């Protein structure tokens, strides 16, 4: 029987120690469904739980995609603000959702300490919102708000592509976050920007999602006090 997880050896850029962390094998990632803000639900082990790497020696934590993206100033900030208070512990084994949330919160704290790019912090906040959604925890909305604010900042200040998102994809995501937070007027405006964007035809999936969510947001705007079933 194939193990769902495998171990990866990582070199910490802050303290230069080597540690192991777990990842879900690509062959074992079975998608069950997706939400309109790109949250993916998996059958079995959830790869989202393992996207944050945490150094057990110094406490530095970041998403895998950004783990090595730290300069000397950032390393010094981690040592002075995190490592001095850190109690050595490992998150390298199998994680449940509560452990995953702890890892993301550690990474979020690190991102604020090192003054990471707004888009990096937004990604962490969005994933925390997803994890709370999976638990049906009302704190989902709190982190959706944070994610929206940081994505808005990234949209105005950072150059595209941002992570894996081009401009039209981020505009769509900002619209969807507005919609989920009940800001229907703003959601409609952002979806309109997507469907009128010159490059919309090169992003047919995003264009379709924007049109679908535009109709939903417009309906919700007219009937704000009624619950509308989402597909």
- Order of strands across the main sheet: 1-2
Low-confidence stretches: 227-231
From N to C, what is the helix and strand string? Answer: EEEEEEHHHHHHH
Q: How large is the count of helical segments?
A: 7
Give me the count of strands: 6
Shape: globular
Task: Note the main sheet.
Answer: 2 strands, antiparallel
Q: Note the gap between the termini.
A: 36 Å
Strand content: 5-15%
Number of folding domains?
2
Mean pLDDT: 94
C-alpha Rg (nearest Å): 19 Å
Characterization of this structure:
By secondary structure, this protein is α+β, with helices and mostly antiparallel strands. The protein folds into 2 domains: 5-158, no CATH class; 166-222, no CATH class. The chain has helices at residues 72-81, 97-113, 118-134, 139-157, 167-180, 184-195, 204-222, and strands at residues 5-11, 18-24, 30-34, 40-43, 52-54, 61-63. The chain has a two-stranded antiparallel sheet. Strands 3-4 form a two-stranded antiparallel sheet. Helix 3 (118-134) runs antiparallel to helix 4 (139-157), helix 5 (167-180) runs parallel beside helix 7 and helix 6 packs antiparallel against helix 7 (204-222).
Produce a short descriptive summary:
The protein is built from 7 helices and 6 strands. It is of the alpha+beta class.
Tags for this model:
about 230 residues, 2 domains, about 15% strand, disordered C terminus, TPR repeat, TPR_rpt
Strand-helix topology:
Layout: E1 5-11, E2 18-24, E3 30-34, E4 40-43, E5 52-54, E6 61-63, H1 72-81, H2 97-113, H3 118-134, H4 139-157, H5 167-180, H6 184-195, H7 204-222
Antiparallel strand pairs: 1-2, 3-4, 5-6
